[in-house]
Amino acid sequence: MIDIKQIMNEYLAATSESIKSEIEKKLLSDFNNLSEDDKAAVRIMFLDDLDTRAKTAIENISIRIELAHLSQYVSLAYIAERYFGKSRQWLNNKLKGNYCNGKKSYLSSEEVKKLSSALVEISEEIRAAAFKIAS
Question: Is the pTM of this model over 0.70?
């Protein structure tokens, strides 16, 4: 059976059109040698993987939109360094889905949870400061 996820990752990591072309030729050759049932299974795996990638991209775009207006008030560099131990550029790359090591890199579900927790924690710190000032 063809490992469609591995092939897609290799294709996305390919650095030249000639390498991509070779991957396409091999995939087509391997695919044509499959039974009709296996071809159907590969098509389903391919669509499932595309669906997963699309959902991840959409979730990260939504996060980026939400953070766009917050970046006027809260430093993304601060969040990246304090909560992830990374640079602002790392966080921006994740939010934008930029390529890293030859493949698109998005926030993982764990990183999304950590980012959400960070925003809640920061909002609580701001709220506490506001109450202290007001009293």
Answer: no
